[in-house]
Structures are given as C-alpha cells and as structure tokens.
C-alpha cells in the first residue's frame, strides 16, 4: 500500500475514466441494491443451504460408521421400496438410528430405508423439501409443525395402524399428536422431567436422596430445605447457616432450567393451567401457576440455592457441573441419562420431581411423522414401529428414550428388556422413577399437543416474559401478567380436545 | 444510473462504427461483467420481484398463498408491537454503532498511516478480526461477555468496578453489541487507509509552511480530502447496521425480553420459524424502503459536506 508518488497523475487517471465521485456513486448504488429484500431473504437462506451441505457431509461420514451402505445389486433390485428417513440428534443418536435402519433393512429385503441426519436448522430444511414437492417419506418433526402440517393434510393419518396392529395398539394415549380424532403422529419416544443428583454430595451433607415414587415425593418446602443444605459457600457454610455468603458459592443445591416446559409438571401438580380449554385465553397468570414460578425464581434470587439463568446460560451442561461439584441436583430430562452414563467419576442417581397438590408429570417427545406423499405407507409404518421398539432400537436401553407402549411400564419382563438391556446405564431406582401409575395415569402432554399456534405464543408472549422472570427483573405475577397481555391476538383455539386430566379435574 | 462509456477506453473515437480493436475490447468488457450481471439477473431479480408480489399475500409456506392486498402492511403498522420493537432495536443499534465504528476505523487508519517500525504487522493485526466469520467472533464474544468468568468483567474487577450482565441484561445488550461491532471495523479501516494515502503531500507541506500543527493538518486537509471516503463508508455501514442479524441470532436469540430483536432477526423468525412468507416479504420491503430513503437523504446532504478533489460537479 505504498502511496503513489505522483498524486496528480493518479487523479488525472481517475478523471479520464470515471471520476471519483462517479465511482463512489456506482459503488454505493450497488450497496443499496444489495440490500434489496430478495437479497435479504437469500442471505438468510444461505444458513439453510449450509445446513444442507453439512447434512450431506455428515451422511457421507456416517455411512462409514455403519449406516445403510448402498449395495448396488440390492438397492436396484426390482420391487424394493426405498424410503428416506430424516432426523436430527447427537452423534450417539445418529449412530443408533443408522444402526436400527441397517438392522431393519437386513430383516426386510424388500425395503431399503435411507437415513439422512440433518444436524442444523432441521425445520428449514424439511420445510424447503416439502415446499418444493419432495418431502422425505418420513422423519422427525417438531410438535408445532406436526400439528400445522397435519391440519393441512400433508401427513398420513395413522388411526388404522394404531387401532389394529397388536404392538401399536398398546401405545399410551398421551403419546399421540391428534387433529380432532385423527392421529397424525406418535411421539418418536416418550420423555419426562425428573431430578438427577450427585450421590457423594448428598452423603457428605447427610441428606436423604430424592424419593423415587410420586406418593413419597418431596413437597416443595422439603425440596427447598434439601437444596439449602446442599448449597455451600467457599467457607463450607450451607444456605441454612447465618454465616452463609451468597456472593461466593462453591456448590449450588439445584441446577434450574429456563422456559415454561420444564416447569409444566410442577404447574399442573399445583392445579395450574396454561390456557383455557377452548384455547382462546392464556391463563399463566392464575395464582396456581404464578405460585410455582415464583417459588422457582426464589430458588435463584431469594435463597441463592440455584444459579441465575444468566449463569446457567454460560455453564457447561448439568452433568458436567455435577461432576465438578458445582451443583448437587438438576431438574432435568430423562434423556440426559445417556450423558450422565458417560460422565466419568460421577456417582449419580435419580428421583421424582416435587409434588404440590397432586402427582402430575408432563410426558412429551418430538413426533415421527409419515408424509402423505410417500409411495410406501405400509413400509414406513413398519420402520416407525421398528424404531419405537426397545428390542430393536438401542436408544431406549442407552438412556435417551422411554418406550411408548404401556407394557413397558406394567410388565416386568418387558421393562427389563428396556431398563436392563445394557448394563451400567440405568441406576436401580429407575425401576421406580420411570415406572407405574405415575407415568401411565398421572401424566399429560404439554400445551403444544392441543393448543393452536403454540410456537408463536411461546416466541412472542411467553419467552420474552420468562426472560424477565429468570433475570430477576420482574416477579412471577408481573412477568405472567405481561405474557397474558402479549398473547392478545395469538390465541387461535385448539387442534383437539385438551387432555382428560385437565378437563376432568377442572385444573 | 450513469453507465460506463466503453468508447472512452479506446484511444480515439470515430463517428462511425467501432473499429475491430474496439469491438474486441467491448466484447471482453461485456464478458468480464457478464458473471456479475447474469448472477444478478438470474439469482437476484427473480427473488426480488417474487418477494414483492408475495408481500401482498398470506402464505404459510407449503400451502397455497392467498392474495390479501395491503393487509400485511396494515397489520405491521397497526397491530404488531414486535415490528416497532425490532425497528427500534435496529435503529438504536445503528445510531450507536455507525458513528462509533467510523470514528474508530478512522482513528486506526490515521495511526496506521504513520511511519513507524513494524507497520505491516500492525496493519495485519488490526485487519485480521474483520476476516473472522461472524459466527466465530460471536461465540468468542459470548465468552468475553460472560458475567462470571468473562474477560470484560475480569477487567472491571481489576478496577474494583461491579460486574455487569452485558448481553444478558435488557438495558446493556445493545450497548454490548455496539461495543462488539468495533471489533470488525477492519474493512472500513482499509478503505480509510487507502483514502489517506491518496491525500496529496503538498497540501500538508502548505500547512507546515503556514505554521500549522498536526491538528490543523488533520482538520483542514485530511478530513476534507477524505469526505468522499467518509460518504462511502457511511452509506455502507448504515446499510450493514440495519441488516444486523448474526450476532443476535447466535448470542441472544433476540432476548432478553426482545431487547435485541433486530429487524432482520424478526424477519428471519417470521419467515423460517413461523413460516409466514407473505408477512416476512412485507417486512423485507419495508426495510428496503427505509434503507433507500436513508441513502437518498445521505446523498442529498452530501453536496454540502463532500469535497471531490477532481472538482467537477
């Protein structure tokens, strides 16, 4: 970047061709043009495009890891039904789903399931595929889009399969995504919330571990008391001590979660409601809900037994925090068992969530859908069934998934195929925490299973208000009043009738 | 729009047709601009026209669009609080980041225009951050802004100042992102530097002869001579700031409490998370109109403060 010696000459050069002023004008016009809306969308879309490339590369890389290799002769043989299955998930999940597809293909020579793992921006990718008229045959789908596309007739209605097939007939009624009475999907697998804890820290603090059945569950006050005893400052004082220093905490009693969903179990347990049964009014500012949310906020800002959400956003995941003794308990999801199993040197256990007025637990899970455009609906449901079978798909025994069929919660021999399928994954108490009536009868799905427009309600009304709550900038009442005010115009009714437990208990 | 007159490239113009040589030159010229022109025509004009039409429809992607006339625009201006919130966020951010970044880039360029040892190394160091992808620098800055063990709070701690919540606070998130934007001014700095090197030395000498100091040189020579470059950087950085997306998408997802819901992030959410292509296209066109209006205003004003060395108007 040496300065030209003769600036006059350079200026002359510029004048001869195109003056500086004109040059700048042209360049700026180009800049303004680049800001055109099409360009904005194109720029945004590039995120999706890059997601696509990475999906390609990952499916390439995973084919070496044992995923549906294309055996030339076999795949081109006449009469083979070829199915594309798309999904997201961690490397563990990717491998397990790939293995399951391989096993399925070997057992079903007339079907070839190809799996495509899409790690980033999954929804955008699938939307694009569907919009261009080439959706996959089947795949994972978020609950909100399942309902939307189901209502638009893009998804296969599955009633006849779930009514006739002996295995599928046993599916829990809570595990369905329904439009009216039409079953448009079942959960890929069930998921619930529970408490994880570090056994060593409980022993050192001489505190009994969390109860493992709902009838013995802690009340909120008992839970809070335990959390206080487990919270230690740098000098070793716990949060019950008068010398406790909240500014220098070494171990937090509990690792909280953000958002609404993780607390839905507690809210339902306290008789709180998310929305009116006809879906026209958000009700999160009712006393039962506010009471629970205020108690959770108090864990952070009043009793200092939980890190604030700002802190947890920058923390590593809960199992790592527990391993390094930064937290003693986590209100987490059962799917984390897979991660806990791989946390070296951590002696961990699990228990049920605290109970308020009545035992309640939300049971949920992303959907596995079959697109109506598929040419092979019967083969697709066969693979879906295979994937939801704990004896065929490893993700159940590895700790990521819970089965959808009732028998796994009532029949000990079926249960053991799941919980004891792989040694050293589930702790002994899993046979109590993940079993019985608590899961089968006290469970209900969260609002997105029946309420229309849930994503927009969450994006525009709930999440910003929860930001205020978890940041300690508003009380639960103020934050939830704000959420209700913000929900104006977003409440669009229901897809199907709300779960029985909501309508019958009036809560 | 004025176009480049190809004939001036040749040595002499004849009143008749082009000579063979000029014809060849013209052909090469068209060939060279073809990729850009074709790319624009095929890949941009189509989507631009389409998005204009789509903006008058209600189109939940994957189902059929319905013509709704001006409804999207009406909804935006009358009953969408997030439209105003996102507009506010983008404007406040632009108001803060554009002048600050320009000042910072200008100051750096002036410093890097001095004759000191190791100049190329300094230039490289200050330019490097701007070639780091935004995603990477966003992740990096999340660590800087970490309230517990972030670098910035550690620095505040050294001076005994209280810890700040940075991007996790509704009031500080935009100032934090403005601060972060200064990290990426390398490109602007290079343009300023190029401009600085085009300032004729004899003008500085004239100031020296008249007994002026460094300040006089800066204010009476450097700044006036650089006004075209300042105009260029100003317009481009206004456009860039109003289109801010990545930082918020990666670092805050628009939070807390929508305090960093940038306009383009809102647009993206509307289009690709809620699937409302019609409304999203309408949002895009409103942003385009805003940018055009601002650009025109800046151009209008430029006659008063931009000095072109060539002199011609």
Task: Describe what you observe in this structure.
- The complex is a heterodimer of chains A (about 500) and B (about 325).
- Chain A has helices spanning about 5-15, 20-35, 35-65, 70-75, 90-105, 120-130, 145-150, 160-165, 165-170, 200-205, 220-230, 260-270, 285-300, 310-315, 320-325, 335-340, 375-385, 405-410, 410-420, 430-435, 435-440, 455-470, 475-485, 500-505; strands spanning about 80-85, 110-115, 140, 175-180, 180-185, 195-200, 230-235, 250-255, 325-335, 350, 360, 365-370, 445.
- In chain A, helix 12 (about 260-270) packs across helix 13 (about 285-300) and helix 22 (about 455-470) runs antiparallel to helix 23 (about 475-485).
- Chain A has two domains: about 5-65 and about 75-190 and about 365-435, Periplasmic binding protein-like II (D-Maltodextrin-Binding Protein, domain 2, 3-Layer(aba) Sandwich); about 195-360 and about 435-505, Periplasmic binding protein-like II (D-Maltodextrin-Binding Protein, domain 2, 3-Layer(aba) Sandwich), CATH 3.40.190.10.
- With about 500 residues, chain A is α/β, with parallel strands linked by helices.
- In chain A, the strands form three sheets. Chain A has a six-stranded mixed beta sheet with strand order 2-1-3-12-5-4, with helices on both faces. Chain A has a five-stranded mixed beta sheet with strand order 7-8-9-6-10.
- Residues about 1-20 and about 40-75 of chain A have low confidence and may be disordered.
- Chain A is built from 24 helices and 13 strands.
- Chain B is an all-alpha fold and about 325 residues long.
- Chain B has 13 helices and two strands; from the N terminus they run αββαααααααααααα.
- Chain B has helices at about 20-55, 70-80, 80-110, 120-125, 135-145, 150-160, 175-180, 185-195, 200-210, 215-240, 245-250, 265-275, 275-305, and strands spanning about 55-60, 65.
- The radius of gyration of chain B is 24 Å and the shape is globular.
- Chains A and B meet through helix 1, helix 2, helix 3, helix 6 and helix 14 of A and helix 1, helix 8, helix 10, helix 12 and helix 13 of B.
């Amino acid at each position: 970047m040496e300065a030209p010696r003769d600036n006059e000459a350079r200026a002359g050069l510029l004048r001869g061709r195109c003056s500086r002023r004109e040059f700048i004008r042209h360049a700026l016009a180009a800049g303004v043009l680049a800001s055109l809306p099409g360009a904005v969308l194109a720029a945004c879309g590039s995120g999706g495009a890059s997601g696509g490339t990475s999906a390609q590369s990952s499916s390439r890389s995973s084919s070496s890891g044992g995923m549906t290799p294309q055996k030339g002769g076999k795949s081109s043989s006449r009469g083979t039904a070829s199915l594309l299955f798309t999904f997201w998930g961690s490397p563990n999940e990717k491998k397990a789903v790939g293995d399951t597809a391989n096993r399925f293909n070997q057992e079903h020579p007339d079907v070839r399931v190809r799996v495509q793992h899409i790690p980033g921006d999954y929804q955008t990718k699938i939307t694009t595929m569907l919009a261009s008229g080439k959706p996959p045959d089947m795949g994972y789908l978020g609950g909100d889009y399942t309902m939307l596309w189901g209502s638009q007739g893009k998804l296969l209605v599955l009633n006849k399969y779930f009514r006739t097939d002996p295995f599928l007939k046993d599916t829990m009624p809570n595990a369905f995504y329904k439009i009216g009475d039409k079953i448009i999907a079942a959960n890929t697998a069930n998921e619930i919330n529970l408490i994880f804890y570090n056994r060593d820290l409980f022993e050192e603090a001489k505190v009994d571990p969390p109860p493992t059945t709902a009838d013995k569950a802690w009340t909120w006050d008992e839970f809070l008391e335990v959390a206080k005893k487990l919270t230690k400052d740098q000098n070793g004082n716990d949060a019950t001590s008068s010398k406790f220093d909240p500014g220098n905490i070494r171990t937090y009693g509990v690792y909280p979660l953000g958002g609404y969903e993780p607390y839905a179990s507690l809210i339902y347990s306290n008789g709180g409601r998310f929305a009116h049964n006809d879906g026209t009014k958000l009700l999160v500012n009712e006393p039962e809900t506010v009471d629970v949310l205020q108690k959770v906020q108090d864990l952070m800002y009043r009793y200092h037994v939980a890190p604030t959400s700002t802190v947890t956003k920058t923390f590593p995941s809960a199992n790592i925090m527990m391993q390094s003794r930064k937290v003693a308990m986590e209100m987490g999801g059962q799917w984390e068992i897979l991660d806990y199993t791989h946390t070296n040197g951590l002696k961990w256990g699990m228990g049920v969530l605290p109970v308020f007025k009545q035992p309640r637990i939300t049971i949920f899970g992303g959907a596995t859908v079959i697109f109506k455009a598929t040419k092979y609906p019967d083969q697709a449901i066969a693979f879906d069934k295979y994937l939801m079978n704990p004896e065929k798909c490893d993700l159940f025994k590895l700790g990521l998934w819970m089965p959808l069929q009732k028998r796994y919660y009532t029949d000990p021999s079926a249960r053991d195929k799941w919980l004891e399928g792989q040694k050293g994954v589930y702790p002994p108490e899993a046979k109590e925490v993940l079993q019985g009536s608590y899961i089968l009868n006290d469970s209900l799905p969260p609002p997105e299973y029946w309420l229309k427009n849930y994503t927009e309600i969450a994006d525009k009304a709930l999440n910003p208000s929860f930001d205020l709550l978890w940041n300690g900038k508003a009380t639960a009442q103020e934050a939830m009043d704000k959420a209700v005010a913000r929900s104006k115009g977003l409440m669009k009714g229901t897809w199907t009738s709300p779960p029985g437990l909501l309508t019958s208990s009036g809560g | 729009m004025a176009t480049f007159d190809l004939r001036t490239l040749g040595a002499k113009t004849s009143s008749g047709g082009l000579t063979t040589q000029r014809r060849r030159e013209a052909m090469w010229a068209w060939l060279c601009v073809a990729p850009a022109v074709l790319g624009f025509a095929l890949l941009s004009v189509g989507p631009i026209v389409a998005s204009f039409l789509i903006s008058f429809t209600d189109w939940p992607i994957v189902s059929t669009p319905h013509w709704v006339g001006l409804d999207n625009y009406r909804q935006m201006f009358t009953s969408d609080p997030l439209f105003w919130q996102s507009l506010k966020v983008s404007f406040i951010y632009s108001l803060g980041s554009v002048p600050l970044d320009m000042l910072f880039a200008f100051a750096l360029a002036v410093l890097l225009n001095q004759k000191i040892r190791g100049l190329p190394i300094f230039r490289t160091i200050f330019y490097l951050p701007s070639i780091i992808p935004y995603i990477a620098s966003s992740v990096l800055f999340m660590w800087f802004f970490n309230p517990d063990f972030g670098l910035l709070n550690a620095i505040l701690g050294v001076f005994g100042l209280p810890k700040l919540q940075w991007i996790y606070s509704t009031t500080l998130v935009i100032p934090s992102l403005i601060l972060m934007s200064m990290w990426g001014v390398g490109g602007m700095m290079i343009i300023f530097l190029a401009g600085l090197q085009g300032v004729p030395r004899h003008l500085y000498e004239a100031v020296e002869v008249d007994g002026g100091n460094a300040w006089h040189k800066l204010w009476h020579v450097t700044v006036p001579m650089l006004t075209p470059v300042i105009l260029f950087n100003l317009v481009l950085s206004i456009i860039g700031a109003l289109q801010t997306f990545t930082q918020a998408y990666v670092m805050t997802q628009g939070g807390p409490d929508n305090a960093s819901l940038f306009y383009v992030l809102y647009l993206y959410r509307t289009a690709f998370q809620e699937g409302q292509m019609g409304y999203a296209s309408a949002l895009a066109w409103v942003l385009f109109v805003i940018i055009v209006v601002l650009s025109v205003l800046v151009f209008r004003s430029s006659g008063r403060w931009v000095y072109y060395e060539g002199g011609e108007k």
